[in-house]
Amino acid sequence: xxxxxxxxxxxxxxxxxxxxxxxxxxxxxxxxxxxxxxxxxxxxxxxxxxxxxxxxxxxxxxxxxxxxxxxxxxxxxxxxxxxxxxxxxxxxxxxxxxxxxxxxxxxxxxxxxxxxxxxxxxxxxxxxxxxxxxxxxxxxxxxxxxxxxxxxxxxxxxxxxxxxxxxxxxxxxxxxxxxxxxxxxxxxxxxxxxxxxxxxxxxxxxxxxxxxxxxxxxxxxxxxxxxxxxxxxxxxxxxxxxxxxxxxx
Length: 249
Hints:
The protein is an alpha/beta fold. Helix content is 34%, strand content 13%.
């Protein structure tokens, strides 16, 4: 029967679409990368999605985050994303978690319930905890390396963490994964050397913070990265394509 996923079924077949419909994917981080990954997954027919993020949409998110528009500024990202998901596919089951994933709250999540985990968060401690939890439960995981301070969307590659190069975040992750006995980790990384962002006090978040009340402020970071509309989106779409490919094989 003709339906909204018929064009996708022409590529993956009826059995492939059934596997996607029966799959549950957890997306940690619903920002520039995670938001586009979620979009592609729901449009591909994924049956259930867990959205994990404690952040609210800020005006500065509008340059790159799919669910960030003027009317959603101040809303929780997971709430805005859930509304968009159901506007696309009302039958998709959505579980929202308004929390920032760290080793301290890892036990709140049963990774054995997930068919796939997407790591789109930006802290090394959180990424390592996700990789460890996925390895322990035997759940497939794919992790986004640095997408900030990049302008070349064609420079991204999919590889195991131990086969990465150039990316500073991937270098740190390689070292820490070895220490923790994480044997493999599929990642998306860039071969483009990162650009040092300009220091402009007139548009500095440190001097003119406009984060919504109750938000975990970006100013706690050592550096606030520059970003574009076309780099995080590409990373998110690459990640979604890997998830769909792996689930339908």
